[in-house]
Amino acid sequence: MRLLAPLALCLLLAACGEGKPLLPADARLPDGGQYHGEVVNGLLQGQGRVDYPNGSWYAGTFKDGQWSGSGEWHGPNGEVYRGEFNQGLFEGQGTLTAGSTTYTGGFKHGKREGEGTLKEPGRSYRGGFANDQYAGAGHLDLDDGSTYQGDFDRGQPNGEGVRTDADGNQFSGHFIDGQLEGHGTFSNGDGDQYIGEFHHGRLEGRGRYETQAGDVWIAQFKGGAPNGPGDLFANDGSHYQGQFVDWHFYGEGQLASADGSLYTGGFVNDAYQGKGTLVLADGSRQVGYWLEGRRVRDEHDHPLPDPLEQGLLAQGSLLEHALARLPNSTPAVELYSLTLGGDGEQSVFMREADYVTDLLASRFGASGGVTLVNHREHLADRPMATRETLAKAVQAIAQRSGPEDLVFIYLTSHGTPEHELVLEQPRLQLGDLSAQDLATLLAPLKDRDKIVVISACYSGGFIEPLKNDRTLVMTASRPDRVSFGCSEEADFTYFGDALFAQALTATDDLQVAFQQASAIVAKREQAENFEPSEPQLWAPKGVLAHWHRLRQQQASDALHDKQPAAGH
Asked: For position 220, what pLDDT does the model report?
């Protein structure tokens, strides 16, 4: 803010020189201004108005030839001040407007001083001022949604305060020239929290970082991430102690895993790499050289067989054995099941596929089932989930089942916005399964009534290609929504848990189970502030009736089995 002294000259009417006659009231002043008002003893006193050649003017109280008391000033560029003056300057309480900037509050010697409110393009501030700048306690709001509340000095956050950015990240502690320095805290909208040291507003120094999921880093931070020595206490019960680079295990360290194993040695990007020793839960030891998480040479530096190659060699017989266990149809209504866990990077999909297979067999009498899963540790002992293995499983079920039978198909994995089910086996490049590809693969079952359930993001996009009078389709989400619950430590996705672990253990009515599962998922998502996934259902009456006949037959068979034999 500029000083107003040039505009508030001492307006003595004898300004042309001592001893010269005073100008009469309502006359032109020596600086060209036109004055209208009172003159007492040769000085402008009391109420009056001065209009200046540059278009500015003042109206209000004069004292000893200067603006003093209450008044109103209009500047040549549209500035307007209404308030108190002293010796020709803004002083006391007033409001100054210049274009789209407005300040209301205290002034001293023509500058903002004391408590006030300043609104200008992009920001608004309320609090203390000194020498025309933010000073003392105040609150700053920016139009991008970020805020700061706390101490100011020289126009910047300086001292104790809390800053919240547009993304909901909150920083609190001691600020220097707008940046958090020294000990402070950080939290974000996801529920993560950090307590520790800061430098230039970034996580820097020793600190503790805890995620909403329960993972805890206690480490040396640099550049906003763990870089250097530290510990990670993961929510699955594992504990890593060693070196970090940008959140990842990198360098020498020790990892005690939740399965009871302990690895000591080198790491690169969270994977065992370099010389190391792995002690399994049963006490057995694996010593040697590791590459991308697998031991490639033993302690004598002899090369070891590649588990990927061994697993690929075993896949043919694994699939053949799984399909051979499918029974042939009987005259009664049979239920065949096919479950698939698509993404082998996370164990939740394998756990969920296995649970559904067991539930369909134990509760719903599935006499024949095939389970296809991808998992980083089960390539050599489980048939993989690929488009080709899925096609062969469908063909086998079509051959073994009869037209009177039902087929229950469950697919769980990550999903893409393009409505593709992710098929991922570490170290292999598998093609994802599109909705149209799935419809084509299911063609051999066109004469079978089917229940197809898909738990994946964007899975609602599978309904249109799959739906027909012989196919009931349930999905975990709308075509344009994500679903939740995919994590390494989880046993179920949200939808899988709600439908199979809860609803279908209480009812065998598919429509009721879907409604109950949808309500469970919605309540859970609301509690966690997630956007609703909105599960979808396509339910042909013929398939529902066929399922009902199956359950009636199973109930009748169970009752018959319980009746005592004749003569007993």
From this structure: 97
Residue 76 and residue 219 in one domain: no
My answer on whether 364 and 509 are in the same domain is yes
Q: What percent of the chain has pLDDT over 90?
A: 80
Q: What is the CATH number of the domain that holds 239?
A: 2.20.110.10
Whether residue 73 is found in the same domain as residue 42: yes
Residue 199 lies in a domain: no
Q: What domain range is 460 assigned to?
A: 309-326+339-561
Give the residue-averaged pLDDT of 387-395.
97
Hey, what amino acid is at 559?
A: L
Q: Tell whether the model's pLDDT for residue 160 goes beyond 60.
A: yes
Residue 308 φ/ψ region, left for φ over 0, alpha for ψ in the -120 to 50 degree band, beta for the rest: alpha
Give dist(CA 551, CA 547) in Å, integer.
6
Distance, in Å, from the CA atom of 535 to the CA atom of 456, rounded to the nearest integer, reads 10
CATH of the domain at 114: 2.20.110
Helices H, strands E: what count in the chain?
9, 32
Q: Which amino acid is at 15?
A: A
Angle formed by the axes of helices 510-527 and 541-562, nearest 10°? 110
The residue type at 467: K
- DSSP for 344-364, written as a single string: TTSTHHHHHHHHHHHHHHHTT
CA angle centred on 567, ends 564 and 568, rounded to 5°: 45
- pLDDT tens string 109-128: 999 999 999 999 999 999 99
pTM value is: 0.62
User: Of 79, 100, 121, which marks where a domain is finished?
Assistant: 121
Yes or no: say if 280 and 255 are a contact pair by the CB < 8 Å rule: no
Whether residues 271 and 318 fall in one domain: no
| Residues 396-450 pLDDT 10s | 999 999 999 999 999 999 999 999 999 999 888 899 999 999 999 999 999 999 9
Q: Are residues 263 and 354 in the same domain?
A: no
pLDDT for 443-472, tens place per residue?
A: 999 999 999 999 999 999 999 999 999 999
Neighbours of 170 (CB within 10 A): 16
In this model, does residue 566 exceed pLDDT 70?
A: no
In our burial notation (b when 16+ CB lie closer than 10 A, e otherwise), range 138-167 reads bbbbeeeebbbbbbbbebbbbeebbbbbee
pLDDT at 435 (0 to 100): 96
Tally of structural domains, the chain = 3
Q: Which of 96, 121, 146 is the last residue of a domain?
A: 121
What average pLDDT does the segment 307-317 reach? Answer: 89
**SS in 3 state form for 97-133?**
EECCEEEEEEEECCEEEEEEEEEECCEEEEEEEECCE
244 with 300, same domain? Answer: yes
CA distance 120 to 126: 12
| Same domain assignment for residues 358 and 410 | yes
- Are residue 430 and residue 509 in the same domain, yes or no? yes
Question: Is residue 551 situated within a structural domain?
Answer: yes
